[in-house]
Structure formats: structure tokens, C-alpha cells
Amino acid sequence: MNRPRLSFLDKLAYGLGLLFVLDRLLKLAAVVHFFRRPAPPQPETWPTASLLQPITRGASGLGDALQARTQLVYPGSIQHLFICDANDSGSQEIVRAFLGAFPMLRAEVVLVEAADATVASKIRKLQAALPKARGEVLCFMDDDVSPRPDALRVLIPYLYQSGVGAAFGLPCYTNWRTPWSSLMSGLVNANMLLSFVALTYLCDPFRITGHIVAFRRESFMQVGGLDGLEQHIDDDFEMARRLRVRGLRSVQTPLVYDIDNELLSPAAYEAQLKRWFVMPRQAMMPSLSAWQRVVAALTSGALPLPGIIALLALLMRRRSALISLGTSLGIFGIVYAIGEARYLKGRTPLARWPLLVLVALLTPLQIARALLSNDVVEWRGQRLRVHRNGTVEVKP
Q1: Torsion of CA 384, 387, 391, 393, to 10 degrees
Q2: Which of 122, 170, 245, 266 has its Cβ near the most Cβ atoms within 10 Å?
Q3: What angle do CA 81, 103, 120 make, to 5 degrees?
Q4: What whole-number distance in Å separates Cα of residue 382 and Cα of residue 265?
């Protein structure tokens, strides 16, 4: 008995589903292998480390993030530099109360004038604190980051491998308090672990993930430190580029850290999503080599496939599209659960799991819309036009 031949649309639905499954499974295999690789040897003498920690008004979960930094287990000496805006009395009060509760920390508060802006930029804060940093290792840490106790012990040995200029880790988003924070946490935890690790098997990372990043002092100064970085909105990409020019690599490490990212409205969610993707489009993509652009496409190109399959299922109402959609969502959830439980060591609240369907189906389409939009983003209360060379223009 002859079987009915599949139509073009049936083949398309099955093909897209298979492509998404292969993408997820190959990336998961890369993650499994990545975390099984032996760690580099520990230094004979652990270097002193300076933690430069810029703090911006209204940082969500600041108290918890500061508390986590007291739990760092590190054999060497740690210097904490907390950098606040001079007119931000709220953040200063939180930091000083924290230091009063932990007087054993080797710590200092650095105040920075905001000049003509509401708040000083992250780079301006780091530039102000850098002369006070005494460590052999300079580690920059954002104010919404809660490092895990072994963070420095994981990160720093990579810096002492040959040709390494910077070492950084993998984010685990932990804010599930609002639907908008939950959508962003789901997006990051579902995709960044897979994509960031998969990229390392195709080329050296061409951008630093700057939530936590460490440099050896001599390498950092060799490439000019922070000089001129205030002119680049994507300073993480520019720093990685400077290191490459000097023959130094930026290394993705298996360090995992927690981030509390509070989004209170759909507008805040849309603004962050647009900023995350328009900034690299303008500041990073024009400078990438042909192979780096191919790698960027390979590591992120499959994201919209479940949404496309869902659209086919809605329009076709055929068994093939429904099977492909169910398979895609199933593999999305399985790989997400494995990545979260085994590698990120996070936990998505049961009530937020239904939002992961939106992350799989709709968020990639929102990203595509952002990439096709104009070059104006919102950041820290300002509207900025991002030019193709990475410079910005403040809009009224």
C-alpha cells in the first residue's frame, strides 16, 4: 500500500522542527563537554584581587548582592571598592550600612561626581576607582550580580594561561517577581548558556560578558586600561577588540553567577530587549570578520524557529506542523530543565514555567522586531542614538 506523499509545507514543518531539535541537542552536547573539561592549574601563590563594583541608583536586590560578596572563598587578599554617585545618598546609605555590618572587609567607598548627567556612567565610575585598586588582578563586578562563593577561585586560574587577557563567566538570571522579569530571566537562562558555550567551539569569544570580568593588571594596562572607553557604548566589545589587537584572548569560563534584574512593566521589558540587540547590531556587527558573523548567525539563528513553526501550525492546521511544534516545545523545555538544574544551578518557580512557552514562541519575534527597528535605545533614563561605530548621541 502506497503511503501518501508529503506536501512541501509538511516537509517544511518537519524540517524546521528537526533543525531546532538538532540545534538544541548540539548546543547541549557542547555544554556537557565544556563543563567536563579539566580546570587550569591553580596558581602557586594566589594573586591579590581588587573588586571594582560600580553601583547605580535603584539597583534591584543590592543588599542581597552585597551580602553574597562577603561569602567569597578565596585564598588571596580581596580589596573591595564600592563606587557610588556623589549625589546618590540612597545607595551610599545601603553600602555604608553593609560595611558597618562587615567591618572585617578590606573595603572603601569611592564617590563620583556625575558632571552634567543624572548619574555617572559605569566606565566613569570605574575610571575614578582604578587609581585606588591595588590588586594584581582587577575584577569588575556589576551591582546586580551575586557571585557564588567559589567565583574567584574558578575565574582567576584562567587568567594565568598563556595568551589570556580577560576571563568571564555565564549569567543565571534569578528575578521571577514580575512577569516581565520572568520573561527576561527565561530568555537568558534558556539561551545564553547554550549560545555562549557553543560559540567557544567555533572561535574565541569576540565580546566580553561584563557582569563579572577579570584581568591581570599588567595585561589590562598594556592595552590602555579604560582610556577612551567612555566613547564606546559597547565597552565590553571594545575591550575584547583591544585585547585581540595585542594578541590576547578573552576566555569564557564555567563560572556561573546570579543576576537580579528587576523589570516592572512591559515598557521596561521592551526597552531592555531593544537595547540588548540594537547596541550590538550598531556597535559590534560592523566590526566583525566574515567568520565571526557566520558564528553569530549559527549560535542564534535557530531562536525564531518555534515561532515560525507555530505560525505554520496556525495557518496550515496540519498534523505535521502540530507534531513539529510539540516536538520543538518539548525539546526546548527538556534542554532548559537540564541546563538550569545541572549547570546554572537555578530554579524557575513552577508558576512561571508557562511563561517559557512565550519565551520560546514570541520573544524571538520581538527580538527580530527590535533588530529591524531604528537605532534609538533607552538607557538609564536617557534616549540614545547608537551610531554604527559604537558612539552615541543623546536624544531629547
Answers
A1: -40
A2: 170
A3: 25
A4: 17
pTM of the model: 0.92
Q: What is the DSSP letter of 260?
A: -
3-class secondary-structure state, position 130: helix
Supply the DSSP symbol for 131. G
Nearest to 253 by CA among 193, 148, 195, 169: 169
Q: How far apart are CA 335 and CA 339, in angstroms?
A: 6
User: Residue 1: what pLDDT?
Assistant: 44
- Residue carrying C-alpha cell 560578558: 209
Q: What is the pLDDT of residues 279-325, one digit of tens each?
A: 888 888 888 899 999 999 999 989 999 999 999 998 888 889 999 99
Residue in 80, 117, 12, 24 with CA at minimum distance from that of residue 379: 117
Could you write out the DSSP letters of every residue in 210-252?
TTEEEEEHHHHHHTTTTTTGGG-S-HHHHHHHHHHHTT-EEEE
Instruction: Give the pLDDT score at 7.
Output: 85
Instruction: Say whether pLDDT at 268 is over 50.
Output: yes
Predicted pLDDT at 231: 76
pLDDT digits (tens, 9 = 90+) for 37-87: 999 999 999 999 999 999 987 677 888 999 999 999 999 999 999 999 988
Of 46, 99, 94, 107, give the one whose Cα is nearest residue 73.
46
- Closest residue by Cα to residue 188 from 260, 281, 120, 132: 260
**Residue 252 identity:** Q
Total residue count of the chain as it appears in this document: 396
Beta-carbon count within 10 A of 294 CB = 14
Q: Which of 173, 123, 126 is nearest to 145 (CA)?
A: 173
Largest CA distance in the chain: 82
* Residues linked to residue 376 through DSSP beta bridges, in sequence order: 385
pLDDT tens digits, one per residue of 119-159: 778 888 999 999 999 999 999 999 999 999 999 999 999 99
3-state helix, strand, coil in the chain (%, to 5): 50, 15, 35
Which residue reads 595585542 in cell numbers?
246
Q: How many other CB atoms are there within 10 angstroms of residue 54's CB atom?
A: 26
**Cross-sheet strand order for the sheet of 164-173:** 107-112, 78-85, 49-54, 137-141, 212-216, 164-173, 249-259, 145-146
